[in-house]
């Protein structure tokens, strides 16, 4: 059963408020990281993402790799000052950055022995050296470790109104780590270590909404092969099993762990490479057929991490529900590999028919969950690759699909980047193609950030989220959905809140006179009222009952769906509906 978008929007607002109060202080490199509001967390309703007020948002950004590599730090900081780099990104309209990172590096942070960085220039010894001064200790020349530098970069992202999320690019710190198929099996990283280390970071940043989410693993992949009658254990698959290499099962376990320490974090889940034609009886145990044409093969192929066909049968469903799940396929053009769907004069429609729709686009089109294309991009060739980039760009704009371009770095061999080798000058032609897909106002072209307080950038070209919805949304709108105007339709209204309050008071009066056990149905926090905070408490309690306590009376009050069957997710949904007036009495 789908709850209404208005209910979900109110729940998102209340979840942020509840967890802001409950979150424990966080240490950033030994000092407390203070967030002005901690109110920028996002939540999904259907295929769209919303802020705390129920306003729709659009994540439009780019990748900055390096923390996944042997240098243990974002690349380019040997050439450019981090403030100059990030302010330029913000001024160019990038409202979110995806940071690839390795599990090996996270483990070093978690264990208190952060790996050192290389290829970083930093110092403060004027007039000779003044670059990345926040990357050195008080002596002005000793470079901080990788965790301290990451923390500084997050603080600087906040300074310029940029949000961030990490992607676990590989188990080991490896400049070619993306070639490895699985999330475990290298550098001592097991499935448990992978989950523990990413959960550790999620808890560390649970009180800082700069780091809004976690891409659990970059491009799980692997082909079934032609031999044997069982699926190899060294490829990523997507099915209903509890096998260690079942990516859907592993992603669900990891999501549960992250959400237990930060229920507000977004969880980005990529696809796999192959999916069996289950409608024809094939499974991952079915061997491939040598040189079989597409209609005879037992398999649907895709880009690494791009195949999300399995979501139809086996969606990633955390214990707390799917409000934080964002599916994140990767999509590339013929300059990376000459896929069969490029063997024609392709159009948007042929790409949808031949590949996009059944592989990932249906998730957005059928309102199942939001999409974020985690990697797309390539060389400007005035040919097929540029044509593909333009078609995908326009499709994402027209269909509110979030995205992060690959990449900012110029040192990506098969795609190039948005910047030249100085990490300072933008490739005007490539940026010109990409820029159209950045969230911006329709007439004035101001870029829209995801922070409610801090505008995006420093040169006046960007807005905060509050500025956009207060002053621009109803007048000129934005390029979301190919051009929209007006405040978001799911934003909670005073009228709806007033009706809910009146309904709550009336029902409470009835229940008080009719019962003798002092149960106020729906009052999970036992404050004498029934409001959205009660639904939030039920949700948080189900995620982590140790962290989010509920009294025995609260449990009795919360058992509103079914007959004495204990507190469950249906109780949270039922309380939400009651608060908004769609249910008149409790229990049901």
Give an overview of the whole structure.
The structure is a single chain. By secondary structure, this protein is an alpha/beta fold. Helices cover 30% and strands 11% of the residues. The protein has 14 helices and 19 strands. The strands form six sheets. It has an eight-stranded parallel β-sheet with strand order 15-12-11-10-7-6-17-16. A three-stranded antiparallel β-sheet has the order 3-4-5, covered by helices on one side. The longest helix is centred in the C-terminal third of the chain and has 21 residues, at 494-514. The protein is globular. The chain starts with a helix and ends in a 9-residue tail after the last helix. Residues 1-35 and 489-516 have low confidence and may be disordered.
Quick rundown:
The chain has helices at residues 5-22, 82-91, 103-110, 146-159, 191-204, 247-261, 348-365, 384-398, 428-435, 465-472, 494-514, 532-543, 552-558, 569-579, and strands at residues 27-28, 31-32, 43-45, 48-50, 56-57, 60-63, 96-102, 123-125, 129-131, 163-170, 211-215, 266-269, 275-276, 299-300, 325-327, 372-373, 402-405, 447-448, 462-463.
What structural category arises from helix and sheet content? alpha/beta
Instruction: Summarize the main sheet.
Output: 8 strands, parallel
Question: How helix-rich are the residues, as a percent range?
Answer: 25-40%
* Average pLDDT for all residues: 88
Spatial gap, N to C terminus? 15 Å
Query: How many helices does DSSP assign?
Result: 14
Which shape, going by the Cα principal axes? globular
β-strand percent reads 5-15%
Strand order of the largest sheet: 15-12-11-10-7-6-17-16
Total strand segments: 19
Low-pLDDT residue intervals, each spanning 5 or more residues: 1-35, 489-516
Radius of gyration, CA atoms, in whole angstroms: 24 Å
């Amino acid at each position: 059963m789908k709850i209404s978008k208005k209910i979900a929007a109110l729940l998102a607002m209340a979840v942020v408020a509840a967890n802001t109060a409950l979150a424990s202080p966080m240490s950033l490199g030994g000092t407390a990281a203070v967030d002005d509001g901690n109110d920028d967390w996002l939540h999904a309703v259907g295929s769209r993402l919303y802020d705390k007020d129920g306003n729709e948002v659009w994540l439009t950004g780019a990748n900055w790799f390096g923390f996944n590599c042997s240098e243990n730090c974002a690349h380019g900081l040997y050439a450019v000052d981090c403030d100059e780099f990030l302010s330029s990104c913000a001024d160019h309209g990038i409202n979110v950055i995806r940071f690839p990172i390795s599990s090996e590096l996270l483990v070093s942070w978690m264990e208190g022995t952060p790996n050192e960085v290389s290829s970083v220039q930093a110092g403060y010894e004027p007039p000779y050296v003044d670059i990345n001064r926040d990357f050195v200790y008080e002596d002005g020349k000793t470079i901080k470790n990788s965790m301290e530098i990451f923390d500084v970069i997050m603080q600087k992202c906040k300074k310029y109104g940029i949000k961030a999320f990490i992607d676990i690019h590989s188990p080991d710190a490896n400049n070619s780590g993306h070639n490895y198929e699985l999330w475990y099996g290298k550098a001592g990283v097991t499935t448990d270590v992978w989950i523990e280390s990413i959960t550790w970071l999620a808890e560390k940043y649970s009180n800082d909404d700069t780091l809004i989410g976690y891409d659990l693993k970059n491009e799980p992949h692997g082909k079934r092969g032609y031999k044997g009658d069982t699926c190899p254990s060294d490829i990523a698959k997507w099915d209903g099993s509890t096998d260690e290499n079942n990516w859907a099962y592993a992603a669900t376990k990891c999501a549960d762990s992250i959400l237990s320490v930060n229920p507000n974090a977004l969880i980005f889940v990529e696809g796999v490479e192959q999916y069996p034609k289950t409608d024809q009886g094939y499974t991952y145990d079915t061997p491939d057929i040598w040189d079989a044409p597409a209609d005879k093969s037992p398999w649907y192929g895709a880009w690494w991490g791009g195949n999300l066909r399995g979501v139809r049968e086996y969606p990633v469903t955390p214990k707390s529900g799917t409000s934080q799940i964002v599916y994140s396929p990767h999509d590339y053009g013929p300059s990376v590999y000459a896929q069969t769907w490029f063997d024609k004069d392709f159009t948007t429609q042929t790409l949808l028919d031949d590949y996009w729709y059944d592989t990932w686009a249906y998730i957005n089109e059928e309102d199942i969950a939001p999409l974020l294309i985690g990697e797309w991009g390539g060389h400007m060739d005035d040919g097929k690759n540029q044509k593909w980039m333009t078609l995908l760009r326009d499709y994402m704009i027209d269909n509110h699909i979030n995205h992060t371009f690959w990449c900012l770095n110029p040192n990506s061999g098969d795609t190039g980047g948005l910047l030249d080798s100085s990490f300072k000058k933008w490739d005007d032609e490539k940026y010109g193609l990409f820029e159209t897909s950045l969230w911006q106002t329709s007439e004035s072209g101001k870029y829209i950030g995801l922070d409610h307080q801090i505008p995006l950038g420093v040169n006046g070209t960007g807005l905060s989220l509050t500025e956009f919805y207060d002053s621009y949304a109803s007048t000129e709108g934005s390029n979301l959905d190919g051009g929209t105007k007006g405040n978001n339709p799911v934003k909670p209204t005073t009228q709806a809140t007033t009706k809910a309050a009146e309904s709550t008071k009336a029902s409470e009066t009835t229940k008080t006179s009719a019962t003798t056990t002092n149960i106020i149905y729906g009052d999970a926090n036992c404050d004498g009222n029934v409001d959205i905070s009660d639904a939030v408490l039920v949700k948080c309690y189900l995620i982590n009952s140790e962290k989010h306590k509920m009294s025995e009376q609260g449990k009795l009050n919360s058992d509103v769906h079914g007959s004495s069957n204990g507190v469950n997710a249906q109780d949270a949904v039922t309380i939400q509906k009651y608060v908004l007036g769609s249910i008149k009495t409790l229990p049901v």
